[in-house]
Design a protein that fits this description.
272 residues; alpha/beta; Rossmann fold; 7-stranded mixed β-sheet; 3-stranded mixed β-sheet; 25% strand
């Protein structure tokens, strides 16, 4: 098909610029890329926390994490104490892990678990950029009800994205995965027993569908009295399977906060 002449005239300058770029030494291209990295301030007023921004999701959602979930920020600020340990399961790029570090001046140890490769990359960069490497430990694994290799289903590759799942039936939009990555997956009880890491004082679970499986694989962890509270983002339907396990271990629901549609943030504390 003949090329449209007007379109050709419009595109010609870009063609010549692209040809010039091709002759720029790789070292200079790498330098430009490094110097054009964008960081913006997270909306957590008490402390200056910066996040790497490489997508619209990071710009329009992750940078506004404090305003988006004020109940999560209040839970972090008011419930945690010096010497506590937070397991941030589904940490994404680390906004709430970083808020925890800032709110408690590094006296709360955080294990930030994020399986997605694109989010894990920026999670690590954000920890380093904010000088929180001493008290935040990033770990790239998934959790479920048993320890095994399992496919982790991606639905896009943009950093800051969410709704990736271990189990395709949990995907709320019923989309087809664009990649199934074989992923090391642990039951939480097995993870703690295998590596001898400190038991959590607090659990934050935001995994877009696998909440019931994670709780099922964490029964010993939940019974352990070192665990003081949990924040779980989930639906009422899924919580019907979770609440009896938590109640049997001495936890009661303190509050729930709507996150849109049928999804809520549920906060539980140990009552006995």
């Amino acid at each position: 098909m003949p090329c449209n002449k007007k379109a050709k005239r419009l595109l010609l300058p870009f063609y010549y610029r692209a040809k010039k770029i091709a002759f720029i030494p790789y070292r200079m291209l790498f330098w430009v890329r490094a110097k054009t990295s964008i960081t913006k301030r997270l909306d957590y007023a008490p402390s200056r926390i910066s996040l790497v921004v490489e997508s619209h999701r990071e710009l329009h959602t992750r940078l506004h994490s404090a305003a988006k979930e004020p109940e999560t920020v209040a839970w972090i600020e008011q419930t945690f104490s010096s010497g506590d340990v937070l397991y941030d399961i589904g940490a994404n790029i680390g906004a709430y892990s970083l808020i925890t570090g800032a709110a408690h001046n590094g006296t709360v140890k955080v294990y930030a678990f994020e399986p997605g490769f694109q989010n894990f990359n920026n999670l690590c960069r954000n920890i380093i950029n904010n000088k929180q490497t001493e008290h935040i430990v990033p770990v790239q694994i998934a959790f479920s009800d048993k320890t095994e290799m399992h496919n982790f289903n991606y639905y896009d590759f943009k950093s800051g994205s969410a709704l990736h799942t271990l189990h395709p039936e949990h995907n709320v939009k019923k989309r087809t995965p664009i990649w199934k990555q074989p992923m090391l997956c642990y039951a939480l009880d097995d993870f703690i027993a295998t590596f001898g890491v400190p038991h959590p004082s607090h659990l934050k679970i935001d995994v877009d569908g696998s909440e019931a499986e994670i709780i099922s694989g964490a029964r010993e962890t939940i019974r352990n009295r070192q665990l003081k509270s949990l924040l779980i983002e989930s639906t009422e339907q899924v919580m019907r399977h979770i609440v009896p396990i938590l109640n049997a271990s001495g936890f009661t629901e303190q509050s729930r906060h709507n996150r849109g549609g049928e999804t809520y943030n549920y906060i539980f504390t140990r009552s006995r």
